[in-house]
Amino acid sequence: MHEHFAPVDLTVPPGNLSRIPASVDLSLTGGCNLKCRYCFYADSMAARSDLPTERWLSFFSELGGLGVQRVCLSGGEIFTRPDLYILIDGIIENRMRYSMLSNGTLISEEVIRRLQEGKRRIRLDSIQVSLDGSSAAIHDLSRPPRSFDRVVRGLRLLKEAGFPVTVRVTLNHHNIGDIEALAELLIEDIGLSGFSTNEAESMGTARCSGENITLTATERKIAMQVLSQLNEKYGGAIGAQAGPLSRARMFQDIKTRIFNGETGIPGRGTLCSCGGVFTKMAVLHDGTMVPCNMLPTLIMGVIGMHSLKDAWLHSPAINAVRIRPEIPLSSLGECNDCPYTGFCAGGCPATVMAKSGRLIGTDPQSCYREYLKEERGS
Questions:
Q1: For the chain, percent helix, then strand, then coil, each to nearest 5?
Q2: Per-residue pLDDT averaged across 12-26, rounded?
Q3: Residues 6+ positions from 315 with CB-CB distance below 8 Å
């Protein structure tokens, strides 16, 4: 069944949209010292070239002049860029704060020293490091061999130096039985206050690995149960904006509301799952502006050639994502006979696009009706 919607002028931004993004995600490089088995950034970005230092610094001046408050630096692996500290200083000079995403393997005593120079540390909000197992035997199944020890060493250096460090665990076929041991390592051994989780999706290099890396329905159900129990044990220390723990919370909330006689959740019932495009956008390492670095084909423009402010307000690429909350789930073929549409939000647009090739649609893994079918074993 094909859905039909009235034409919309996608050059006109929503009426309540801020004139600039509060933050911008910057993929400073496509280069990486690892090749992980589920990296969404690896395959489609390989042919793109990194912007030179001067182009980035000029863009930082544009961001600062507009009043953008924060940037998040990622890659690839940001610590492979030899001019990283020059770029960080350019961000600071333009009155912005920054956070960093890293695989953690290149964090050394020298990195710690350099991050403490000047205002680099006081303007740093957080460093997020990726870890996917409590041992090399588990972690290195998802990531290249001999990476586990380097990640743990980097984590300990950051923690001992008092940096605001967090960890993201990407759940997949290889670490599904290691969640408890991993929580113990991060919270009880290394001493982190908590960590966050998500799930390997069928995009990027995971497309090639297929069922060898992504969770099965049974594994996802196990992860939902284990993470919910662990989060209770550790007093809510495990976070999630996507993946099994996020779904467990959402579905439990729906169950509770239905038991209490409710027929929906205020603000739900449309494709409203992603609010990020109303407060932030992204730039790929070749300067391409996109709504999100997981939506690299929705091109808003190129930095240095197009105004970020104009792209933010008037690009059809990002406004096409922003109109999703105006589309009722009941108008979609896959949802029009579902009694639970009032509780749902449709799922991540990037995941929907990766699975279906279209932006207007839903992710079955975020569907309460599909979840009930799995619960009943049908």
A1: 40, 15, 45
A2: 95
A3: 11, 289, 300, 301
Q: Side-chain half-sphere of 212: how many Cα atoms within 13 Å?
A: 11
Q: Tokens standing for 27?
A: 């993929």
Residue 46 confidence (pLDDT):
58
- Closest residue by Cα to residue 139 from 235, 221, 38: 38
Alpha helices in 109-240 (DSSP H): 109-115, 136-142, 148-160, 179-183, 206-209, 217-233
What six digits make up the tokens of 162?
A: 């008092």
**Other C-beta atoms within 10 Å of 40: how many?**
21
Radius of gyration of the chain from Cα atoms?
Answer: 21
User: Over the stretch 96-146, which tens digit does the pLDDT of each residue have?
Assistant: 999 999 999 999 999 999 999 999 999 999 999 999 999 999 998 887 778
Confidence of residue 254 (pLDDT cuts 50, 70, 90): very high
202 CB contacts (<8 Å, ≥6 apart)? Answer: 210, 214, 354, 355
Q: Is 4 helix (H, G, I), strand (E, B) or coil?
A: coil
| 3-state SS, residue 315 | coil
Alpha-carbon distance 84 to 216, whole Å?
A: 39
Q: In whole angstroms, how far apart are CA 165 and each of 103, 358, 366?
A: 12, 36, 30
CB 139 within 8 A of CB 174: no
Give the phi and the psi of residue 249 in degrees, each rounded to 5: -65, -45
Structure tokens at 5: 């919607």
Question: For the segment 135-155, what is each residue's pLDDT rounded down to a tens digit?
Answer: 999 998 887 778 899 999 999
The span from the CA of 77 to the CA of 98, in Å, is 16
238 secondary structure, DSSP code: E
Encoded amino acid at 16, one letter: N
DSSP code at position 168: E
